[in-house]
Amino acid sequence: VEPSNSLAGVLGALRLCFRVPAASSASDAPSMGFWPAAAAAAEAALARLPKASSLEAARNHRPLAVQGHGGLYSVQQQELRHYRALLASISDGLARALEAASGAAAVSREVEEVAESLVAQQVPAAWLSCSYPSCKSLAGYIEDFVLRAVAIQRWNAEGAPVLFWISGLFSIPGFLVGVLQQSARVGERPLEDLRLEIRALGEVPERAAEEGVYARGLFLEGARWDFAANTLAECTSSGPSAGLRGPCPPIWLVARAAADGAGLAPFAAEGLCYECPVYVLPQRHARMSSRSNLVFRMQLPCAEEG
Q1: pTM for the whole thing?
Q2: I need a surface site. Which of 51, 121, 167, 199 has the fewest CB within 10 A?
Q3: b/e map of 51-78 (b: 16 or more CB within 10 Å)?
Q4: Residue 47: enclosing H or E segment and its boundaries?
């Protein structure tokens, strides 16, 4: 059901996000000199990076890794490969910048571009070419990468989580396909006969989903979630929920047969629903080289007007 015009004016889009602690982006290049500043930034970044061995596939722990979500094992392994490759690119770029700064190696144009980005507190283009989408500063990007690496490392070592951190995944579309493939195997149905249904949960689950998966990592922009009524509501100008952005409850992703029309019971028995787009980047029209910024849409119940 489409919301009324007045309500549509206050409804914003759900977007995948990740919050990191505020970090200073000031550069000391004018006082330190270009290469000393680049070396300082490289050393600070290297000190935060995880070890490559922490992202190695846990071959001896495969039964644990697939427990509860066996169909997502290939997704997990693909995520590990993506993050290992990105870690190698970041580590190599930082190491080469340090060698150039110390005079131990010649300065190539590629190394110089990395150093320029480090001094400007920006993410080097060479990293972004093999990275997940990001608009963060250098400090925010490194902090984000570290926490993403911790999340995939835990999934690898401890098994599937109760709540998947969907915005911490390298490939969200790949994860969505994995959920469908998992259901296709369990129900012995062709993949093309299934569709993905997504709904918001009224509370944080304590156990893994019996069907599909639970996920977290979304926020609302342009509207807020009323946790008491389990509906979208207008933003407020005061109180703990003030502002244009706010938390979104966990979501449930589950595959349903597309032919029989049987789906989940609606969150609200009657009332308005908003087909809410979910974006990877906060910038709705952000350009991404090989993928769409829009990853999926989900129906969210709206509070009745009046």
Answers
A1: 0.80
A2: 51
A3: eeebbeebeeeeeebbeebebbbebbeb
A4: helix 34-48
Q: How far is CA 206 from CA 124, 169, 217, 290, in A?
A: 40, 21, 16, 36
Q: Given the structure tokens 């109180």, which residue do they identify?
A: 239
Most confident stretch, 32-36, 151-155, 200-204, 272-276: 151-155
Residue 80 tokens read as 């590990």
- Both tokens assigned to 226: 């009323």
The residue type of 199 is R
CB within 8 Å of 82: residues ≥ 6 apart: 132, 170, 171
- DSSP 8-state symbol, 265: P
pLDDT tens across 13-32, in order?
444 443 333 333 334 444 56
pLDDT digits (tens, 9 = 90+) for 43-87: 999 999 999 888 886 554 444 444 445 679 999 999 999 999 999
Higher pLDDT, 34 or 258: 34
CB 8 within 8 A of CB 273: no
Mode of pairing for the β-strands spanning 245-247 and 218-221: antiparallel
Q: Which ranges of 213-272 does DSSP label H, i.e. alpha helix?
A: none
Q: Which helix (H) or strand (E) holds 215?
A: strand 213-216
What is the C-alpha to C-alpha distance for residues 279 and 274, in angstroms, rounded to an integer? 15
